[in-house]
Amino acid sequence: MNHGRDPNTPNLERSCGVIPFRRVGEGGVQFLVVHSALVRNPEAAWEFPKGSPNPGETDIETALRELREETTVTQIRVLPDFRDQVRYTYRREGREIEKTVVFFTGEVLDWTGIPDSAPTNEHGPHPRIGQWHKWGTEAQTQRLLFHAGMRNLLERTARFIYEYDRLERTRISVILPAP
User: Fold this and answer.
1) Residue 126 binned pLDDT confidence (cut-offs 50, 70, 90)
2) How many domains are there within the chain?
3) From CA 118, how far away is CA 164, in angstroms rounded?
4) CA angle, corner 25, sides to 24 and 27, nearest 5?
5) Dihedrals phi, psi of 118, to nearest 5 degrees
6) Residue 99 maps to which CATH number?
7) Which residues, in sequence order, are CB contacts of 137 under 8 Å at separation 6+?
């Protein structure tokens, strides 16, 4: 029963997620992606943690809950002023779905608790690589992301982080007294 809805009209979905990163070495950044067990093509299944909002949740609350549920990460510093989105269309059960995913980015402060096995059935090991999650540089993560919209999002995120860090260094150098 379609309740008078045109079956050719696309359904709208909204999700929220986090682009998690960690700092490595002198100025290095690595991004965390997880491997979806729900996508048929394993090469197209690397993604950032994301999911649908619960009733009454804000976008950032949804994004942080999904990060915690999908990776067990609880210690993260969300960078202010970063909010981006990706839109795409896919088919489910013969219906066209138009999806918008709102993303935030944050520095993971403690990743030691990420388990060897995925904490939910939404993610699982890549059949060739054998891992359900992977840390990588921007270039390495770009190669894992299948969809151009997600690669573009990662590029914008990396630029934001580098600019954020540059401004923080400038702000700190202005505050510190001269030797």
Assistant:
1) confident
2) 1
3) 31
4) 85
5) -60, 135
6) 3.90.79.10
7) 28, 29, 30, 31
Degrees, nearest 5: CA angle 78-133-72: 50
Pairing of strands 95-108, 11-24: parallel
DSSP line for 63-109? HHHHHHHHH----EEEPTT--EEEEEEEEETTEEEEEEEEEEEEEES
Q: Per-residue pLDDT tens for 76-88?
A: 999 999 999 999 8
Q: 165 lies in which domain range? A: 11-175
Q: How many CB atoms lie within 10 A of CB 44?
A: 13
Taking phi first (over 0 means left), then psi (-120 to 50 degrees means alpha), and beta for anything else, what does residue 170 get?
Answer: alpha
In DSSP notation, 120-178 reads STTB---TTT--SEEEE-HHHHHHH--SHHHHHHHHHHHHHHHHHHHHHHHHHHHHSPP
According to DSSP, the β-strands at 28-35 and 11-24 are: antiparallel
Cα R_g (the chain), whole angstroms: 18
- Give the H or E element holding residue 61: helix 59-71
Tokens 């002023």 belong to residue: 81
pLDDT digits (tens, 9 = 90+) for 128-173: 888 999 999 999 999 999 999 999 999 999 999 999 998 887 765 5
Distance CA 131, CA 125 (A): 4
